[in-house]
Amino acid sequence: MTAKKIEKDTENKILEAAKKVFVLKGLDGARMQEIADEAGINKALLHYYFRSKDQLFMMIFKVEIGNFFPRLIPILLSKEMTFDQKIYHFVENYIDLFLKNPFLPTFIIREINRNPQMVAQFFIEAGIESNNFKQIIAGFAGELGISPKEAFHLIINTVSACIFPFAGRPIIEQVFFDGNTAEYNHFLEERKKFVAEFVVNSIKGRMINTK
Amino acid sequence: MTAKKIEKDTENKILEAAKKVFVLKGLDGARMQEIADEAGINKALLHYYFRSKDQLFMMIFKVEIGNFFPRLIPILLSKEMTFDQKIYHFVENYIDLFLKNPFLPTFIIREINRNPQMVAQFFIEAGIESNNFKQIIAGFAGELGISPKEAFHLIINTVSACIFPFAGRPIIEQVFFDGNTAEYNHFLEERKKFVAEFVVNSIKGRMINTK
DNA sequence: AATTATTTTAACCAGATGGTTAAAATAATT
DNA sequence: AATTATTTTAACCATCTGGTTAAAATAATT
After folding, report:
1. Which of B60, B86, B107 is the last residue of a domain?
2. Which label site among A77, A83, A204, A206 has the fewest CB atoms less than 10 Å from its CB?
3. Residue of chain A nearest B108, judged by CA positions
4. A-B C-beta contacts closer than 8 Å
């Protein structure tokens, strides 16, 4: 390998190890020694590449909170899909993300509550405008003939139903599945269908109410 | 005050302080000195009353995870309420609990994921049977003419919608409310009505589907 | 082969932290 | 007033932890 490739390679090994440890244990629970071990290097080299724990943590956090935000905004804004199609699409992809990153929800919840200011800072740095979200809400409200407020609650309900089963897994798995991990994974897979149906049905049920 | 009352009083002061600090910062983030300060005593006395940090933490955790479980099982099993009434009752009371204990959801999520074994241990010690929950599921399934599986997803959806807005508060508040705390509190209050409606409507919408 | 870059070794430091101890001080009981 | 129980003071300890350093060793470049 060339010198520059070696450098990038080591950097990546560290970042992957740091992600694994920080996501699982959080800033407070993670140890630099553990990250070094996980990366297969020593502590001196770890500090040589990334000066401090906080700096390394922030790099991981920024990437992971970015992943946490669904890359589905264009889809939710598209004119070619109905509301139902958008919901099915969103739920399936969002739950899939967490099936691939099962500890992402817990990590985000833990860290944003430890230091809520990081959230505001992330939005400023990433240049994310809340306009997109408000546009989605307005779009749903228009298409479904409901108030923006109600459309917003609907979105929060949908997102909640995708995220919570991952964050609350230890309890639900224990109470309802007697700790059977395989069964719980099946349950999570199933939810792609059930959550979307649940949301779509709720709108249908609302329509008869107001008729 | 009598000697025994003084003892109980100090004990309570410590437990209240410990709850405050542990719930906010978690086991890893909490400091014994901070708990002592919060209780208005010194570290020596803190250790005199509760031998170790872990022991003190476990006392708090057991109480709080107990609070986390809705004391609403009898209501959900009652024969005198319809499904709709049960949902409205449950959602209102559960959200109310979190309005009074805003950091309870984050605390529980943080700690059960840090040490999932505590959950199983709690269930053994508290003697909680999963039969109650399974009975509620069966009851819903019977009353609504849906499968137990579907009834279970419904319950998880309902619980998710109550809990997540508290655990994910920093993000939602930032993205949709520009950090306006008062507005977010109003939104949470509103949800008592909207979440219940959402769930009830979903069942209504499902009924037309199968007709 | 000589030079340069990357990594390891291993000792070390300072500060934080959980926990202890014994004596002094304060408050309650008799 | 004397005794007993509660709390403070304050020094102290061992361990952990983030972080540093300089020299030796290994690998890549020229």
Report:
1. B60
2. A77
3. A168
4. 186
